[in-house]
Amino acid sequence: MRLAPSTEFDLALLDVNLQGKMITPVAELIKARRCPIIFATAYGPDVLPEEFSDHPFLQKPFEMDILAKAIDEMFRSRSR
Q1: If you count Cβ atoms within 10 Å of the first and of the last residue's Cβ in the chain, which end, N or C, has fewer?
Q2: Domains in the chain, ordered, with CATH?
Q3: Residue 56 class from Cβ within 10 Å (0-12 exposed, 13-18 middle, 19+ buried)?
Q4: Rg of the Cα trace of the chain?
């Protein structure tokens, strides 16, 4: 939480649920900064909060090539 408002990064890969806590507050801070977010979850897209339903997500476990493809697609769509 304390790093999300000010840390420089190109993309956030966020697990939807960390030790029983939803990542929504951190995702909201990152979204406000207009930084791209990819969510990871073992539960499927239905667990994403409504305001993030248009963001990409990866079903855990996922392979590195799937992550690389999601990152590539994210940056390609942002450059349009």
Answers
A1: C
A2: 12-78 (3.40.50.2300)
A3: middle
A4: 12
For every residue of 63-75, DSSP letters joined together read -HHHHHHHHHHHH
Q: How far apart are CA 8 and CA 57, in angstroms?
A: 22
For residues 76 and 36, give the distance between their C-alpha atoms in angstroms, rounded to a whole number: 12
Average pLDDT, the chain: 91
Q: Give how far Cα 29 sits from Cα of 4, 10, 32, 58, Å.
A: 6, 14, 5, 21
Cβ neighbourhood burial of 80 (10 Å; 0-12, 13-18, 19+) = exposed
Nearest of 64, 46, 1 to residue 27 by alpha carbon: 1
Sign, CA torsion 6/37/74/77 = negative
pLDDT tens, position by position, 17-60: 988 899 999 999 999 999 999 999 998 878 888 889 889 999 99
